[in-house]
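Sorry to interrupt, but I need a hand with the structure work. I would like you to pick a protein and set down its sequence and fold. Please put the record directly below this note.
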Amino acid sequence: MKYDVIIIGAGLGGLTAGAKLAREGMKVLVIEQHSQPGGCATTFRRGPFTLEVGLHEMDGPGGRDIKNRIFSELDVTGKVEFIHVPEFYRFIRGDLAVTIPHDPQVAAERLLEKFPNEKEGIARYFEQLLSPKKRPAGDSEPDISVGTFLDSIIKNEELKLILLGNLGYFHDDPYSLSLAYYSVAEGSYFTNGASFIKGGSQRLSDHLTGYIISHGGQVLLNHLVTEVTVRDGRATGVTCRKRSDPAQSPIEATADEIVANNAIPALADLLPPVPAAQLKDECSGLNTGASLLTVYFGYDRPLKALGHSYYSTFIYDSSVRSQADIAANNRDDFSRRSFTFVDYSQIDSGLAPEGKGVGAVCCIDYLEDWENLGKEEYNQKKEYVAKSFIRRLGEMIPGFEDAIAYYEVATPVTVKRYTLNPGGAVYGFAQNPGRKYIDSFSPVENLHFASAWGRTGGGFSGAIAGGYLCAFNLLRKGARR
């Protein structure tokens, strides 16, 4: 089989790249090891409940958001419905509770009411997010961490924690998160608002898959790429096999261009020895980001019926007294670990039938704490995690436990199984200050990257933008059918 472009992986980056390239007349093959497309942009069914794998809220689409252009070109607009999310997030730590809206002016005013002595710091924080190209110490200064920046402008530790409420959207430690990256990513929520895809993120993944197919492309699910063939400095094709039937004869496909939507470190294992070693060297010094643990819930009634009224709530344990405590807390016992709680019944999510609801708990977690457990120990730990969060949510929402009709725990092991990402990472490489980016790989000139592991980073917006820019650059360089 001969194609113009073969894309390894059907995450949002791969699907976006594939859809753009197919739109421009290229013959595209997307190969995905999972039984459904989307990567982390997927859903699954449990009885009457549609459970959302990854999306809590996506910044935009709105304003000058590049997704407006992408969604318009790929016919997403009008075909996939985006539901406005009411507030950015609710922050709770002990008796401290603050709701942060998407409007930056209102958010600043609300914070100033609680922290009148931090007027200058609050103003500088929002100036940084809304004008991210302005470095706090001038354009000539190197990138610094978010933690260092906050310490330089704000004295009150509670205020810093509130501003870092949704840190888990990007990273696990403010002192090793790039301010430049954070400013753009966090600033987009304040500039463009946020939304949820009605019916779940699978709707977007399925749309992009259908778009590729309707424009002459092919999406091959349940097939694992086992080798990328390289000759004379060019990738010439791939070998794959059916995941559910390893004994089946391998399938070979050739192409003029190869796009890697899979993890860049994992791609090295598919290359011949020399370029594999070169790619591993390219990745040296780059840290793999954290993973996530999620507890999915189905309810026999919407939580609004219990008096709960917030879509996205970030609960910090009282042991977290300053931003310096955040990293350690992310490895603390689950009875004390800070977490996010999302109640999808606060919007018209399309995830549950009338009179029922769904929600999720999510927290930073690490593969090494799970991967060496025996089956029984693994299941026991999952049950302990679920019960810990159910108890804590019951203290916050009276009647919570009685409303649960179903729950299920997904660990970093689960993430790795379905994405093949090293460490079960969900955001690709950690966005450390001043880190290098792998935009291209000169030893294999026609090998391109379109994933959370590239320059645009993780999350839905990062993956979508990365896929589109990869396709745009490939087309600009003259790749043609």
In short: The chain has three domains: 2-44+200-286+431-476, 104-185, 288-419. The chain has a mean pLDDT of 95. The longest strand covers residues 251-260.
